[in-house]
UniProtKB/TrEMBL annotation, chain A:
InterPro entries from the UniProt entry: ABC2_TM, ABC2_TM_bact-type, ABC_2_transport, Nod_factor_ABC_transporter
Transmembrane segments: 58-81, 87-111, 132-161, 167-193, 200-220, 258-280
PANTHER family, sorted: NODULATION PROTEIN J (PTHR43229:SF2)
Top-rank taxon: Bacteria
Compartments reported by the entry: Cell membrane; Membrane
Name recorded for this polypeptide: Transport permease protein
Automatic annotation (TrEMBL), chain B:
Keyword set, alphabetical order: Antibiotic resistance, ATP-binding, Cell membrane, Membrane, Nucleotide-binding, Translocase, Transport
Family membership: Belongs to the ABC transporter superfamily. Drug exporter-1 (DrugE1) (TC 3.A.1.105) family.
Residues covered by region (Disordered): 310-337
Subcellular location: Cell membrane
UniProt keyword annotation of S-adenosyl-L-methionine present: no
The protein's name: ATP-binding cassette domain-containing protein
PROSITE patterns: ABC_TRANSPORTER_1, ABC_TRANSPORTER_2
Domain of life of the source: Bacteria
Organism, scientific name: Nocardioides deserti
Location of the ABC transporter domain: 7-237
Membrane topology: Peripheral membrane protein
SMART domains: AAA (SM00382)
InterPro entries given in the database record: AAA+_ATPase (IPR003593), ABC_transporter-like_ATP-bd (IPR003439), ABC_transporter-like_CS (IPR017871), ABC_transporter_ATP-binding (IPR050763), DrrA (IPR005894), P-loop_NTPase (IPR027417)
Length: 284, 337
C-alpha cells in the first residue's frame, strides 16, 4: 500500500502522492533563512496581497474620508465659517488627520485576526526574526495611510480646496502624518495582542478614537469651546498633529510643532514598541 | 540530550490558571519514524506540542528537541522543526501558491526559487488545479495538504502534526497518512497527536497515551493493545430492557466484565480470546435475546482509556474549557507570561 508510484494515479481511491511527495521533499534545498529586513519586506508583501484579495478592506480607507470631507464641508461649513468653501480651507487638513488617525486601528484588527487563525503559530515557528511580522504589518499600514491621504486630498481638490503651502507643504504634511500614525500603530498592536476578539478591538478603538479626534482642533477652533474642554484639546496629541499638518499645508509651518510631533512619535515608539514586541514574543 | 533522541522531555509542566494542562510529561522520542501521542480532547497534547515547537514557554521541567533546549536555544529548534497545527496554519485570504511562496521567501528562497518550489509542492500534493484560488475556498483535505506542504518547504528534521486527520473524510485521511509515510521515508521524524487509536496504530512506531497532562502508558501499539485485551466485542440489543439479561449471559460465556455504555441498548466486552465470540452470540439468540448489531474489533480509545485509567475517556475530557486545547482560539484564555 505504500509502494505506489506515479503510474497508479489512475486509481482515484489511492492517489499516488507518495512518490511525488518524496521527490518534492528530496528536492528541498536548505537556504539560509531570510534576514530581518528580508522577512519584514516579505510580510509587507503579504499585506499587499491581502489588499489585492480583499479590496473591501480599502473601503473604510476610501469611503470614510470621502464621506467625512463632503459631510463636514457642506453640512457644517456654512454655519461654521460662513461658507462651505471657507470652512473647507480650515477643515481639510483636519479631516486628513482624522482620517489617517482613525484607520490606524485596523492594525489592531489585522493582528488580532491573525492570532485567532492558526497562521500566527506558523509564522512564529519559522526560523526568522520574530518582530518581522509586526514590522511588515507596519509597512502595509503605512501604504494604507498614504492611500487614504491621497483620497482625501483628491476629493478636497475636486471641491475647491487649495493648499497655500503647495505640493511640497502637502507632501510634508502627509509624511508627518504617516510618521506619527506609524508610531501610533505600535499602541494598536498592543491592543490587538491583548484584546480577545476582533469585535472587542473595534469597540475599544471607537471609544478611544472618537473623543481623541473630535475633541481637538480638527473641526473647529478650540477658542470656541468651553474652558474645561479647551484644557483637554490643548493636551490632546491629535491637536498638536493637526496644527503641525495645517501649518505645513497653509504655508504657516511652525517648526516647533513639527519638531514636537517628531519627538512625540519617537517617544511613543520608544515606549510602546518594546512592549508590543515583548507581548508578541510571549504571546501563547 | 542523547543524540539519537529527537525529543527528550523531563517533568514538563504548563499551567493555565488553576488548570495543569501539562502535568509532568516525560517523553523520549527516538529519531526517525512516527511517534504517536494519543489522548482525548483536553489531555494536554496540543499544549505539549506548542511547548516543543517553542510557541509556549514551559512552566517547569526541561525539553530538548534535536538536542537543543526549547527555552534557551529556541532559534536552533525553530530552524529544524515545522509545525502543522490542528487547524490549518494558513492565510485564508491568500492563494495556495502565495501561501507557499510566502513561507519559502521567509525561509530564504529567492523570488524565482520560491515560486518554483511552490509549484513543485502544489504538484506533489495534487493541488495544482487550486493553486490560484484563495485558501478560503479549499476543502478540509486540501487545506490539510497545503498546510503540510507549507511545513516541508524546507524539509524539517522533526515535524509536529497536531491531529492531522481530525474532521477529514476517509479519502483525505488516507492521503494525509500517505504523506506522513513519505515524509518519514525522506528522513523526517514525525510527532503526531491523535484521538484515534486506529491512526496511531496505522502510523506510529511508538505511542504515548496522555491523560490529564500525564503520560499514562507508553510503548508500541502491540504492547498497548496487549494491556487492553486482544479485542473488543460491541453488542446492541433490539430492546434495551434485554440488556441486563444479555450482559449476564455474555459475561459468563465470554468470561469478561460487561461495560455498559451510555447508550441504553449497547454494551461491550474486552475479550482475550476472540474465537469464543461467535458461540456466545449464538447462545444469546437461543435465549431469545434479540441482537440488532454486533462487532468484533480492535479496542477503541475509550477501551484503552478504561483499561488504563479505570474510567471512560469522555469523563476525562471537558475539552472546551481547556485553554491549551482549543486551538481555534489559541489565545482566548491565556495571559502572556
Amino acid at each position: 500500500m505504500t509502494t505506489t508510484t506515479r503510474a497508479d494515479t489512475t486509481n482515484p481511491q489511492q492517489p499516488a502522492l507518495d512518490a511525488s511527495v518524496i521527490a518534492a521533499v528530496g528536492g528541498a534545498e536548505r537556504p539560509r533563512h531570510a534576514g530581518p529586513v528580508g522577512a519584514s519586506m516579505t510580510y509587507g508583501w503579504r499585506a499587499l496581497l491581502k489588499i489585492k484579495h480583499v479590496p473591501e478592506q480599502l473601503f473604510d480607507v476610501t469611503m470614510f474620508p470621502i464621506m467625512f470631507t463632503l459631510m463636514f464641508t457642506y453640512v457644517f461649513g456654512g454655519a461654521m465659517a460662513g461658507s462651505p468653501g471657507e470652512y473647507l480651507q480650515y477643515a481639510l487638513p483636519g479631516i486628513l488627520t482624522q482620517t489617517v488617525v482613525f484607520i490606524t486601528m485596523y492594525t489592531a484588527l489585522t493582528i488580532n485576526t491573525d492570532i485567532e487563525k492558526g497562521v500566527f503559530d506558523r509564522f512564529r515557528s519559522l526560523p526568522v526574526w520574530r518582530p518581522a511580522l509586526l514590522v511588515g504589518a507596519l509597512l502595509g499600514d503605512a501604504l494604507r495611510y498614504v492611500i487614504a491621504s491621497a483620497v482625501v486630498l483628491t476629493v478636497g481638490l475636486a471641491i475647491g480646496y487649495r493648499a497655500p503651502g503647495g505640493v511640497l507643504g502637502v507632501v510634508a504634511a502627509v509624511a508627518l502624518l504617516v510618521l506619527f500614525c506609524v508610531a501610533l500603530t505600535w499602541v494598536w498592536l498592543i491592543v490587538g495582542l491583548k484584546v480577545r476578539t476582533p469585535n472587542a478591538v473595534m469597540g475599544t478603538s471607537m471609544m478611544v478614537l472618537f473623543p481623541l479626534t473630535f475633541v481637538s482642533s480638527v473641526f473647529a477652533p478650540p477658542e470656541t469651546m468651553p474652558g474645561w474642554l479647551q484644557a483637554f484639546v490643548d493636551v490632546n496629541p491629535v491637536t498638536l498633529l493637526v496644527e503641525a499638518a495645517r501649518g505645513l499645508m497653509n504655508d504657516t509651518a511652525d517648526g516647533g510643532d513639527i519638531l514636537l510631533v517628531v519627538l512625540l512619535s519617537a517617544v511613543i515608539t520608544a515606549v510602546f514598541a518594546p512592549i508590543a514586541l515583548r507581548l508578541y514574543n510571549n504571546k501563547t | 540530550m542523547t543524540s539519537d533522541l529527537a525529543i527528550e522531555t523531563s517533568g514538563l509542566v504548563k499551567t493555565f490558571g488553576d488548570t495543569r494542562a501539562v502535568d509532568g510529561v516525560d517523553l523520549a522520542v527516538p529519531a526517525g519514524g512516527v511517534y504517536g501521542v494519543l489522548g482525548p480532547n483536553g489531555a494536554g497534547k496540543t499544549t505539549t506540542i506548542r511547548m516543543l515547537a517553542t510557541l509556549l514557554p514551559p512552566d517547569g521541567g526541561t525539553a530538548y528537541v534535536l538536542g537543543h533546549d526549547v527555552v534557551h536555544e529556541a532559534a536552533q529548534v525553530r530552524s529544524r522543526v515545522a509545525l502543522t497545527g490542528q487547524f490549518a496554519s494558513l492565510d485564508e485570504d491568500l492563494s495556495g501558491t502565495e501561501n507557499l511562496v510566502l513561507i519559502a521567501r521567509l525561509q530564504g528562497y529567492s523570488r524565482a526559487a520560491a515560486k518554483q518550489r511552490a509549484a513543485e509542492l502544489l504538484e506533489a500534493f495534487d493541488l495544482t488545479a487550486a493553486a490560484r484560488k484563495q485558501v478560503k475556498a479549499y476543502s478540509g483535505g486540501m487545506r490539510r495538504r497545503l498546510d503540510i506542504a507549507g511545513s516541508i518547504v524546507v524539509r524539517p528534521d522533526l515535524m509536529f502534526l497536531d491531529e492531522p486527520t481530525t474532521g477529514l473524510d476517509p479519502r483525505s485521511r488516507n492521503q494525509v497518512w500517505e504523506i506522513v509515510r513519505a515524509l518519514v521515508r525522506a528522513g523526517t521524524t514525525v510527532l503526531l497527536t491523535t484521538q484515534y487509536l486506529e491512526e496511531a496504530d496505522q502510523l506510529a512506531d511508538r505511542i504515548a497515551v496522555i491523560d490529564h497532562g500525564r503520560v499514562i502508558a507508553e510503548g508500541t501499539s502491540g504492547q498497548l493493545k496487549a494491556s487492553v485485551g486482544s479485542g473488543a466485542v460491541r453488542v446492541r440489543v433490539a430492546d434495551p430492557t434485554d440488556r441486563p439479561a444479555l450482559a449476564t449471559l455474555l459475561a459468563e460465556s465470554l468470561d469478561a466484565e460487561p461495560v455498559l455504555d451510555s447508550d441504553p441498548a449497547s454494551l461491550s466486552f474486552r475479550v482475550a480470546d476472540p474465537t469464543v465470540v461467535a458461540g456466545a452470540l449464538h447462545r444469546a439468540g437461543e435465549h431469545g435475546l434479540l441482537i440488532s448489531e454486533y462487532s468484533l474489533g480492535q479496542p477503541s480509545l475509550d477501551e484503552v482509556f478504561l483499561a488504563l485509567t479505570g474510567r471512560p475517556a469522555e469523563e476525562t475530557a471537558p475539552a472546551t474549557n481547556d485553554p491549551g486545547n482549543d486551538p481555534t482560539r489559541p489565545t482566548a484564555e491565556e495571559v502572556p507570561a
